[in-house]
Amino acid sequence: MKSICFYFQVHQPYRVKRYRVFDIGNDPEYFNDRSESSLNNRKIAEKVAAKSYIPTTTLLLDLLKRHPSLRVSFSFSGIALEQLERYAPEALDLFKRVVDTGQVEVLGETYYHSLSFFYSPLEFEMQVDKHRDLIRKHFGARPRVFRNTELSYRNDLGTWADSRGYLGILAEGWDPILGWRSPNYVYQPKDAANTRLLLKNYRFSDDIAFRFSSREWSEWPLTTEKFARWIGEAEGDTINLFMDYETFGEHQWEDTGIFQFLDRLPEELSKNPGLDFKTPSQVIQTYEPRDQVDIPHTLTWADTDRDLTAWTGNPMQRAALDAVYALEDNVLLANDGRLLEDWRKMQTSDHFYYMCTKWFADGDVHAYFSPYESPYDAYIAYMNALSDLRLRVEKAR
Amino acid sequence: MFGWEFPPFNSGGLGVACLGLTRALSERGVEVIFVMPKTLDLSVPWTRFVFADKARGDACLGKVRMRVVNSALTPYLTSASYDAYRRRGISLSGNSVYGPDLISEVKRYASMAASIACREDFDVIYAHDWLSFEAGMEAKRATGKPLIVHVHATEFDRCGGPCGVNGEAYAIEKAGMEAADRVIAVSELTKSILVREYGIPAGKISVVHNGIDDTTAPQGDGALLRLHALKQAGWGVVLFLGRITLQKGPDYFIRAAKRVLERNPKVVFILSGSGDMERQMMDLAAQLGIGQSVLFTGFLQGNDRYEAYAAADLFIMPSVSEPFGITPLEAMRLGTPVLISKQSGVSEVVKHVLKADFWDIDEMANQILSVVGYPGLRAALAENGIKESSGITWGLAAQKVDTIVHELA
Among A79, A100, A232, B303, which residue's CB has the most CB atoms within a 10 Å radius? Predict the structure, then answer.
């Protein structure tokens, strides 16, 4: 038997508005853009809910009913759930109903979708705890498998997950790390006794997430028959299809046929008696690890480099990250809930991604999603807002 | 190829463009005969110069009477401002070589063009900007050979809008483009002006962006290096370098400076260049109470110019209307962060710069303060700017020009 393991990421950051130097000291609201631009968090949440979350989850509810053996998993960032609760409660309600089917596993992550693991172990733990509490509140579930922001992973994260009793942790199935090994098996992290590693099959995942509507792709159009055949032919215990949930309806628009594809996929896969569906926990409990995988340097699911350079690669990004984590002690000393929350919202990885200059000049729209006109504008808005936050922290002490 | 200025006898980007383009064309095996209106001590290995004042009237035309008078003519003046300068006896640069009346100079140049064209062996006529368009048209009339006109700037850019447009210059520009077999514009921005204001069919216009050759690193012995001491002491240095005229937006630079200084007094603003608004800008700075923070250096050339770029934390080109704008590329090549107005052709080819609308003084001030205040921003702009500007070469421009020339030849 071979299993198909779906994991969908649901995340929306609090984008920083165009915050000017002149606003420092005068405006403590960083995330309240009310313009028609894509910095307006309410507008984006409403739009993504309408185009993606609501239609996809409605379809998924139906699929779970039609196919009692179907299993999927989700990871929701805390700030995505916060925004859905405020701006698109219908989407949150659908997510709750999906989890209530019992066919869905909810994974653990950092509440603020941050890179705190790499900058502050204490802050990281606090965000994981806060996320766990929120998942319990909304879904009555306790995450048993962990995924870190942008699927970033390193040996010491495996060790951490092991020490916290997680069954498993997700990572990218990147060939240079795996060597001759296939991502389609369960592995053991280095220096972790009980936790297991599940690796993304990026080829199959990206066929759906990135290539689905690409007419330059030789396999276009991707039919469910073709995809199910590929999956059937692949060797291994588990095919891990990890992707952003916005793939459905937002990255791949409705007119690409993505919803029809999703609608027919479980049925097509079920035709193969050698395939079943499992959640990450079930995969880990079913299959024995094949080998140990040593990942000393940070691996992510980003672009062709599969490292953190999309977030930390240029001097702006490093300066911004250093600046936000340099505030940690004083923020904690200030003991002010609102300050703490704003500081944490400033840790979300997207802020640093918007400052990425790697492919900015290439005009490659696929590689660069940003609500700002340029990475420089993103950095200026961020640093100005952070300067205001620093003032507020100093005042509060 | 009919031109009007050529380094070192140039007062701005037109001459730089002619040098870069002819060199890159010759590297591609295109032979260029460069015609100048007046004899100058010019010599470069890749181009043969012909001077219109040395040409004999002959075969194609009758005898032509010539008159050569030294004056303050540069290709950037409008006819009206040229007259104003002459009245005040001001010389715009040390290299002025042209006559007392712009239009008559243009006519004189044109009258010699035909005879030069008759003597020389060539396939395509090429004319840079309106000052040499009539020369190009005469050469075409005399020989029947195809004409390409290259528009580096229009009357609408020079005047900062339609209100000050000189009818005669406009008429020459329009006639030149209509007579031409192909029109080359330095940017999409310029192309849109040619279509909108001159009624030139878009299909006849090709956009060829300017490029930049290797910029010489500054030698490091000039007076401007004293600015480094200021920087060491924690001061920010912001540079404007260009003609101090309406088109270049120096007044927006000064007003943005005022906004910046209200917030951060440890910033120095440098205005390099000369022009008809220089005095007005000094007055404006004084009137705004920031006279001590705004320094005027006059016209800079050669090493001084590169030193100015290198000394600056930020180079600003706030042009109201800029057909292209090579100076930001020069600054980028030296690793200096750049802020340009969105109303510039160069903004079509560079991304690793800051951009603002020329009138948006608050946004400009916000960006200036950010560059001065955040070293990470300076570092990223410098790092990426060097890389990006290195890819914008005259070779690329010459390749496009070469294709057009061969289509016509």
Answer: A79
